[in-house]
């Protein structure tokens, strides 16, 4: 009599999981593909069925979005703000996380509690106090900077992004540093390495999966932000998200939807490219975190 092992038995739960994953993937991929195709259509094509393929490649939509709608200028501003924000947060969070994970000092517990509490603060709720604080600093320095310095400054916006994301970044990196055995640091110290060299040449390369994770999450937060950028950059130097909303309002009135969807593609593509570049490291970080936790 043949017996069926547990490995050979059908698993309805696994089949259901595959169905859900495929459904979620389609729910994400179909709208993205639809926006991409719509960005290549001419004006007259939008009055027919929305599911028809474009009759030609109307690349003029992208030219109009980049030049006429100034999406190219907004794109450069977003890149500058995002890159600076990532540099600031990594430069501060990596040493801070290493100190919290490896050093014993007075008030360490209080610092960890403060970092944990910072995870629950939604920056969108405190954007008005931040704005008023920066306006007050501009008023205090009006003799030095008559045109203002803190408001409508992309570098200051990057600092705000980095400061508000430090709790999450330090908390995650510190947890990963703690999972690394101390033996590696002791071996490096015996070879004459300083604390800074141990952190940068030993700990940081081993923490690449965790560093990749925080880079991705912070990149998405900075790139997709709208409220803080709208509040702190009220002038012409808008970020891509704010410029996209302005484009959306203008193109709805002009019925030029091709240019609008081209602007959406300009916003989406950098995120997809960034994720494609680091997705392997991100999966490694999730896998190692699951094993070590």
TrEMBL record:
CDD domains hit by this protein: TM_PBP2
Domain ABC transmembrane type-1 intervals: 75-278
SUPFAM superfamilies on file: MetI-like (SSF161098)
This protein's UniProt keywords: Cell membrane, Membrane, Transmembrane, Transmembrane helix, Transport
InterPro entries in the cross-refs: BP-dep_ABC_trans_perm, MetI-like, MetI-like_sf
PROSITE patterns documented for this protein: ABC_TM1
Membrane topology: Multi-pass membrane protein
BP terms from Gene Ontology: transmembrane transport
Pfam family of the protein (one): BPD_transp_1
Primary localization class, coarse: membrane
Membrane-spanning segments: 15-37, 74-101, 113-135, 155-177, 198-223, 260-278
Record's subcellular location: Cell membrane
Membership in a protein family: Belongs to the binding-protein-dependent transport system permease family.
PANTHER family in the cross-refs: DIACETYLCHITOBIOSE UPTAKE SYSTEM PERMEASE PROTEIN NGCG, MALTOSE TRANSPORT SYSTEM PERMEASE-RELATED
Protein name per UniProt: Carbohydrate ABC transporter permease
Native species: Nonomuraea longispora
Source taxonomy: Bacteria, Bacillati, Actinomycetota, Actinomycetes, Streptosporangiales
């Amino acid at each position: 009599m043949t017996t069926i092992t547990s490995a050979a038995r059908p698993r309805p739960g696994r089949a259901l999981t595959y169905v859900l994953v495929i459904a979620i993937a389609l729910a994400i991929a179909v709208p993205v593909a639809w926006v991409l195709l719509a960005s290549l259509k001419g004006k007259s094509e939008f009055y027919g069925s929305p599911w028809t393929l474009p009759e030609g490649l109307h690349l003029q939509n992208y030219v109009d979005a980049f030049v006429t709608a100034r999406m190219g200028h907004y794109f450069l501003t977003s890149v500058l703000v995002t890159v600076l924000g990532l540099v600031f947060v990594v430069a501060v969070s990596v040493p801070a996380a290493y100190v919290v994970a490896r050093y014993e000092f007075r008030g360490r517990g209080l610092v960890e509690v403060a970092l944990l509490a910072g995870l629950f603060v939604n920056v969108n709720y405190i954007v008005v106090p931040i704005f008023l604080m920066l306006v007050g600093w501009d008023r205090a320095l009006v003799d030095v900077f008559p045109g203002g310095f803190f408001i409508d400054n992309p570098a200051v916006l990057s600092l705000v992004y980095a400061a508000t994301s430090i709790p999450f970044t330090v908390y995650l990196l510190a947890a990963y540093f703690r999972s690394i055995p101390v033996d590696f640091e002791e071996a490096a110290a015996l070879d004459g390495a300083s604390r800074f060299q141990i952190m940068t040449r030993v700990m940081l390369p081993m923490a690449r999966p965790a560093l990749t994770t925080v880079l991705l999450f912070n990149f998405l937060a900075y790139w997709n932000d709208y409220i803080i950028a709208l509040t702190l950059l009220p002038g012409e130097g808008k970020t891509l998200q704010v410029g996209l909303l302005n484009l959306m309002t203008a193109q709805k009135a002009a019925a030029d939807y091709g240019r609008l969807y081209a602007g959406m593609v300009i916003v989406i593509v950098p995120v997809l490219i960034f994720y494609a570049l680091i997705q392997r490291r991100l999966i490694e970080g999730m896998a190692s975190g699951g094993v070590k936790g």
